[in-house]
Structures are given as structure tokens and as C-alpha cells.
Amino acid sequence: MERPTSEDSGVTAEPRVLRRDEWDTWYGTLIRAFSGVPESAEVLALYRELTQVDRSIGVWEGGSGGDGEGGACVGTAGAFAFGMTVPGGARVPAAGVTMVSVAATHRRRGVLTSMMRRQLDDVRAWGEPLAVLTASEPAIYGRFGYGAATFVLNAEIDTSRVRLSVPAGTDDVRLRYEEPADVIDACEEVYARLVPGRPGMLARRPGWERLALLDPESGRDGASPLQCVLARRGGEVTGYARFRVRPAWGSEGPRGTVVLDELAGLDPATEAALWRFLFGIDLTSTLAVRGRPVDEAWQYQVSDVRRCRPELRDALYVRLVDVGAALAARTYQAPVDVVFEVEDAFCPWNAGRWRLSGDAKGASCERTSDPADLALSVRELGSAYLGGVSLGSLGAAGRVREVRGGALAAASVGFGSDVAPWLPHGF
Ligand SMILES: CC(=O)SCCNC(=O)CCNC(=O)[C@H](O)C(C)(C)COP(=O)(O)OP(=O)(O)OC[C@H]1O[C@@H](n2cnc3c(N)ncnc32)[C@H](O)[C@@H]1OP(=O)(O)O
């Protein structure tokens, strides 16, 4: 089917960098594309502050000036400057693609495609080897080379029936209610210490810690304001949980729900103490958790995992913007020496053959004219990059072609990660 070009559909403007004074209009376009329900003033103010305008683009149509000035904003996209942990613990610059929208009046005319083109060219020019995002719909970004790389666990735990067995040392952990804002620095310190240990975690940029405290009444869905419990061991802060409680009463009595927002612990005993606390809050019978790591310990401590109703969900999508730099930035849990034949129609600078040699200490990845061992698209490399999706599984799905026998299994082991990659919060 022939598609109108951006020119014959009336969208003539190319994406251009946002100006600070255009933010309200630009953000208004985004909000409308997400249904138009207004955000609270505090949420709006924080996002205005966090937006990196010099890394944000918009498409403006019908303005008087040559650059579309004064026209309508019909497309938006931003790219936070993040540092993301990769296997081995290095922090790699990653553009956090965000706030993507196209006005419904201008959909399916190539506006998103033009923004993705501009943005990936920019990310490359900034020297950032990775672009990452969470997708409103998984079908959108594969064509631009993004692959689903991390998954999260959601659960609705029936705490009236499920018991938790905790490891030794759990009773040494002391918990205390605190005002969330009063202990934000202590919580951030815990968070920062966890970042290098898990691929996919993002070092928080200044100001991001305040996102976790935003608590507009409209977002509570009948639950309490945000509550916080701080964990200490031997006087030192070792973890925290932020949560809400939604009360409910049935004919049989109380059946409230604890809704977990965030939980972090520096050691297994602290984590277990926090989970035990959440399981046991009086007048509740459900613990609702979303977006947890897929390998989190509580799953192996419960008496009945089925009554926890676990559910997997795709989370972080990864795009290798510079294949060589990205693959060389992580380590490999078993030695790898493999030539990839990479297909990348959207970022052709990545296409062709690359030799990756590496182990648990480091890696190099260079262009080569040697014959290929494995053939795949950049999207599969993105999926496998953090060790959360195995190259072997992608091969079994027909998405990686093994050219040299044995190469797939060897590379698959090397790319794995002992700790499941995890993105703790959206952006
Ligand atoms: C990281 C984030 O911010 S995720 C948030 C993404 N934004 C939203 O979901 C808000 C609501 N939706 C929108 O604003 C728009 O529909 C967008 C941004 C998803 C798509 O914008 P458009 O300008 O319509 O996309 P564009 O015309 O460039 O489409 C390019 C291709 O992607 C396809 N496509 C676009 N959106 C979708 C979708 N939601 N599902 C499946 N395919 C899609 C198009 O059909 C087209 O395919 P083709 O090249 O085979 O013809």
C-alpha cells in the first residue's frame, strides 16, 4: 500500500530542537495524545523541570516562520541523558527516549519516523552507544531497532493464605515508619548503592528522586497517601519500602490491599524483613506489587507461589546505537569470540560484520571481514544485550541464524547474566 509522504500529507516541517518557552504547548500535545486527562500541578512542574529541552524535539506545522514558529505542535520526543548499568557493572551513557507522541490529526504520516530518524542521529552524534525506552505499545519500536530486553514481575499476593519463610538474620533488622520526604536522602543512598549491581538500573539524575515522592490524590485510587518504612541493621540504614494501603471491608471482615510502590534492600535479610512487614499489615489480605525484578527472592520464600498470581510484563527496550561501543562496554560471563553479521536498515552505520571477543574481565568489538558466525538484526542484539533474553532462545525463535555450528550456544552462555536485568522505574 502506498503511504502519503510527509509532504503530500501537509506535514512539511522536520523535527527541530525544543525551546524552553515552547514547553507548555509541546507537553500539551503529549498529554492529549495520552487521552488528555490533565496531570496535577506538582507532576507537571516536576516534568517541566526534568525535561532536557536541548535533547527534546518537536514537529511544528503551519507556522509563519521558516522553522514553523507560531504553528501547531504535532509531534514530541525527548531523550534523557542516563547512565545505565550493563553486565559487568559499567555505567554506559544511554539516551532515555521519552515523551513520544504525534497528534491524532497527523498520525500514520511518518511524523514518528521522522522524529526517530532525527533522534537516533542525535544520540549517535552525542556519542551515546545506547538508546532505551519503555513502550506504550510493544508494536511501535521494533522497526526502529529496539528489542525488549528486560521484563518485570507483577503479582497480587493473597497474604491471608500465603506464608513467607525468611532467611537467618531477618530478626536483626529494625523497621520504623518515617515521613517519605524526611528520609529521601537515606533512601537515595540505598538506591545508588544498588545501581552498579544490576544491569538495566539507571543512575538517578538530580531531581529524579522527587518523582518517587509525587503523591497527587488523583493517583491514589482510594488508597492512603504514600507511606515509608526505613530498615536499619546495626544502626545503619539498609533498605526502605514505599507503599500505600487501600482499605476495604467485606461481609467477612477487613480485606484491604497493600500497594507497593518501591522496595530496596542492601542485603537478603533486609529485603526479607521488608517483605514480611508488607505481608503482615493488619486489616489487609492482598499485597499488590508491580514492576519487580523477575528473579526477586520472595518468590522462593512463599508457601504458595500460585496464590501470588505472578505475571510477566515487557519493560525496557534497548537499541544499540553504536554496536561496537555497546558490545565492548559490557563483560561476558563466559569467554566469547564470535563474528556477528548485523542487519540494521534504520542505522546503517551498524550494519555488517563485527568481531566480539570478551570474557568476565572485558571485551573488544571491532569491524571485521572474517566470515560470520551468527546473523541477526540489531533488534535481537538489543534484546540480548543486558542478559535478560538469551541468544539461544532468539535462535530457537528463528531470530538469530547460526552460520557456524556451535557458535550460538557459546555466545548465548557468554551473554547471560547471573542477576536478571531490571528497570526499577519508568521515565
Ligand atoms: C517512549 C514513549 O514515549 S512511548 C509513547 C508512544 N506514544 C503514544 O503511544 C501516544 C499515542 N500514539 C501516538 O502518539 C502515535 O500514534 C505514535 C507516536 C505511536 C505513532 O506516530 P505516527 O506518526 O503515527 O507513526 P508513523 O506514521 O511514523 O508510523 C511509522 C510506522 O509505525 C507504525 N505504527 C505507528 N504507531 C503504531 C502503533 N501504535 N502500533 C503499531 N504500529 C504502529 C505505522 O503503521 C508505520 O508503519 P509502516 O511504516 O509499516 O507503514
UniProtKB/TrEMBL annotation:
Residues binding acetyl-CoA: V100, S101, V102, R108, R109, G110, V111, L112, T113, S136, E137
Pfam families, A to Z: Acetyltransf_17, Acetyltransf_9, SCP2_2
Entry annotated with the keyword Acyltransferase: yes
Residue stretches making up the N-acetyltransferase domain: 13-169
Active site: Y141, F427
Keywords tagged on the record: Acyltransferase, Transferase
Family to which this protein belongs: Belongs to the acetyltransferase Eis family.
Subunit structure: Homohexamer; trimer of dimers.
Name of the protein described by the UniProt record: GNAT family N-acetyltransferase
